[in-house]
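FAQ

Q: What does a record look like?
A: Structure on top, sequence underneath. For example:
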C-alpha cells in the first residue's frame, strides 16, 4: 500500500511521487535521466566521464534513482546497466498534468 500525505489544499500526494521529484531535483541525477533517455542500457562507469564526478558519487546518485523507482538495472557480465523505467515517467507526467492550470479558452 502506498503512503499518502495531505497537502495544504487538502489533496493527497503520493509519497513515491514526492520521492521521485526530489530525486530529479539534483542536477546530476536529472542529467543521468536525460542521458538514459537518449541511451538506455548505459553502464555506471560511463557516467563518471559525462559528469566529471567520481565513481562512488555516481553510484550514490544511481542508488537514489533506483530506490525511487526511476531506473531499472540489468547485469551484463561484471557491469550493471541502467535504463529509465517508462512507467515511472508516466506517473510523473500524470502528476504534472494534474497540476496544470485551466486553459484561458476554457476559463472564458
Amino acid at each position: 500500500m502506498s503512503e499518502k500525505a495531505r497537502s495544504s489544499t487538502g489533496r493527497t500526494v503520493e509519497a513515491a511521487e514526492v520521492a521521485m521529484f526530489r530525486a530529479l531535483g539534483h542536477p546530476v541525477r536529472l542529467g543521468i535521466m536525460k542521458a538514459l533517455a537518449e541511451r538506455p542500457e548505459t553502464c555506471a562507469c560511463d557516467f563518471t566521464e559525462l559528469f566529471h564526478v567520481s565513481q562512488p558519487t555516481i553510484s550514490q546518485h544511481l542508488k537514489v534513482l533506483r530506490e525511487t523507482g526511476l531506473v531499472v538495472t540489468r547485469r551484463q557480465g561484471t557491469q550493471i546497466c541502467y535504463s529509465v523505467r517508462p512507467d515511472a515517467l508516466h506517473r510523473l507526467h500524470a502528476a504534472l498534468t494534474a497540476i496544470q492550470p485551466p486553459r484561458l479558452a476554457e476559463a472564458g
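Q: Is there anything notable about this one?
A: The chain has one domain: 12-93.
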